[in-house]
Recover the amino acids of this structure.
């Protein structure tokens, strides 16, 4: 599953040493060999990718610089709008939707010379932790196809782990980039909320959603964040700052950095082999000069419950737009009300319906204060506890996922059991803070384990420096 | 379906919520969702039971300010391209079924 890094590809293509067409064909050959087994993609854009690569090669031949991602094959989660190209969210309700615009991240990647190889599979509307909620069938883990790749951005994680793409974009609302990155053995970053424009990301829970990369190296993640980050007037929640410089100084190490292991996220419910890897990661950071201690974020234990009230509440509102009138599926009926109900009943899958129901209930009169209102206050507590922890520590450390990749079907019967996969990743979403999953060895079953580094708001540069140390010392 | 005495949500409430959410659920789905939603709400007991007196809610990671752009004409989506995605169109407009159930 060896893949050339995005940095290496871009450097070779820009210098004329390798042709972008040759690079993309190599990746498409791997797609041909294993996609049938792994189902990373809802749509492979083979002809479009070769045409885009030819254009990159023409520009290099003409003495132009196509950009920092020249000829880099990239996969896009299928909830990122691509103009004229189907964007399904792995839902029957959007199966035939061709957006009339590009997401800002898509525009920025293209302007940097990227070549899009396909749209990747996800849990329907990004709701899930295994891709088993896709209306088009699950993706499979390239390390063991009887197991899930994680989710919701499972297809993007598979695409990078299997060498179908040099890097991929996903979205992370409660762990949907980091958990599949951990289960597939790749790097996954959820940036600070507002650092990357959400324009053109199909909304799930707008106060939590954030776009980020899957890569094979930490440096590639820094590179792609420099390209896609920075203010966008099309997203009113976009932080009014330029893209951060992340590559410069990435190799400065962790000498003197204070790193705290979060007690509450290394507790019961975490498999012993995963906890063991986290302890080894802490030791590696310490050996590299970091000052490692135990941190406490008490309210993190309430994160799961708060998240599964807040995210469904926002989803129930966001998904009200699917009514069969302006775009997407329509199931006809005698009245507009019948069309709404029939379209939504036929178009949404079970998990999406469950979350719409939960959110509608949590927001309904009589229960608003008890559930949604309280969950918002828990969010305040989590922000407070993180702020206190970051007075003592520069970064925090925890597992990404409580377990290795599990078998398909193992957790589909009980939604709550599936939700537990997000226990370590959710707190960063509720706080709007950055977080990265770095591969760090394997577990008892020989499958990848990821460790999670969390940082304060806009702390990506320091966070990725420490991630680079873990990458260099991983077993 | 009999509900455990601790059930957080009744089947009747699930029926009502489905109506509000414009979803038509089968009897089997109603039974399944009643049990599953009760389980999820049960888990949320830790939040529900919390004393949060005097704590302000956070609905967003940052304090949001209203963003206004200059009142000048900028690029917009192409109308024809947008309408190609609509299930039904008439005279350059989205065609909506009768709202009150009358024949058009």
């Amino acid at each position: 599953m060896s893949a050339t890094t995005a940095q290496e590809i871009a450097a070779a293509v820009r210098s004329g040493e390798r042709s972008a067409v040759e690079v993309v064909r190599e990746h498409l050959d791997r797609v041909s060999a294993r996609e049938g087994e792994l189902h990373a993609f809802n749509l492979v854009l083979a002809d479009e990718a070769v045409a885009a690569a030819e254009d990159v090669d023409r520009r290099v031949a003409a003495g132009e610089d196509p950009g920092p991602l020249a000829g880099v094959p990239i996969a896009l989660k299928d909830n990122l709008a691509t103009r004229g190209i189907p964007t399904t969210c792995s839902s029957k309700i959007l199966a035939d939707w061709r957006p009339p615009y590009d997401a800002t991240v898509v525009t920025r990647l293209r302007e940097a010379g990227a070549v899009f190889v396909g749209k990747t599979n996800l849990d329907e509307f990004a709701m899930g932790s295994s891709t088993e909620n896709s209306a088009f069938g699950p993706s499979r883990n390239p390390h063991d196809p009887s197991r899930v790749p994680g989710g919701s951005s499972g297809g993007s994680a598979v695409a990078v782990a299997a060498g179908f793409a040099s890097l991929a974009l996903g979205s992370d609302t409660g762990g949907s980039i980091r958990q599949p990155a951990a289960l597939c053995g790749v790097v996954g970053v959820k940036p600070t909320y507002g650092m990357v424009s959400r324009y053109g990301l199909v909304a799930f829970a707008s106060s939590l959603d954030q776009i980020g990369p899957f890569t094979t190296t930490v440096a590639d993640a820094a590179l792609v964040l420099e390209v896609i980050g920075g203010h966008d007037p099309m997203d009113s929640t976009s932080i009014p700052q330029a893209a951060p410089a992340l590559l410069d100084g990435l190799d400065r190490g962790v000498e003197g950095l204070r790193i705290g292991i979060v007690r509450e996220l290394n507790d019961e419910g975490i498999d012993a082999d995963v906890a063991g890897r986290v302890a080894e990661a802490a030791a590696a950071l310490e050996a590299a000069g970091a000052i490692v201690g135990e941190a406490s974020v008490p309210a993190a234990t309430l994160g799961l419950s708060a998240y599964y009230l807040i995210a469904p509440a926002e989803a129930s509102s966001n998904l009200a737009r699917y009514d069969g009138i302006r775009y997407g599926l329509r199931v006809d009926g005698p009245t507009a009300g019948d069309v709404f109900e029939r379209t939504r009943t036929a178009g949404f899958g079970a998990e999406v319906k469950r979350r719409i129901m939960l959110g509608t209930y949590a927001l309904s009169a009589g229960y608003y204060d008890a559930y949604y209102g309280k969950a918002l206050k828990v969010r305040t507590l989590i922000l407070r506890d993180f702020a206190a922890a970051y007075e003592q520590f520069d970064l925090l450390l925890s597992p990404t996922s409580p377990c290795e990749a599990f078998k398909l079907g193992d957790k589909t019967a009980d939604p709550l059991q599936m939700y537990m996969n997000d226990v370590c990743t959710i707190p960063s979403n509720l706080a709007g803070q950055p977080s990265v999953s770095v591969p760090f060895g394997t577990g008892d079953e020989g499958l990848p384990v990821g460790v999670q580094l969390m940082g304060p708001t806009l702390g990506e540069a320091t966070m990725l420096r420490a991630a680079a140390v873990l990458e260099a010392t991983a077993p | 379906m009999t509900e455990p005495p601790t059930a957080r949500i009744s089947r009747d409430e699930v029926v009502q919520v489905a109506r509000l959410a414009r979803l038509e659920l089968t009897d089997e789905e109603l039974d399944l969702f009643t049990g599953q939603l009760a389980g999820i709400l049960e888990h949320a007991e830790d939040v529900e039971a919390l004393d949060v007196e005097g704590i302000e809610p956070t609905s967003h990671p940052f304090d949001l300010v209203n963003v206004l752009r200059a009142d000048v004409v900028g690029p917009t989506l192409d109308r024809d391209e947008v309408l190609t995605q609509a299930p039904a169109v008439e005279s350059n407009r989205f065609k909506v079924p009768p709202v009150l159930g009358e024949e058009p």
Remarks:
- Chain A has a mean pLDDT of 97.
- Chain A touches chain B through 71 residues (CB under 8 Å).
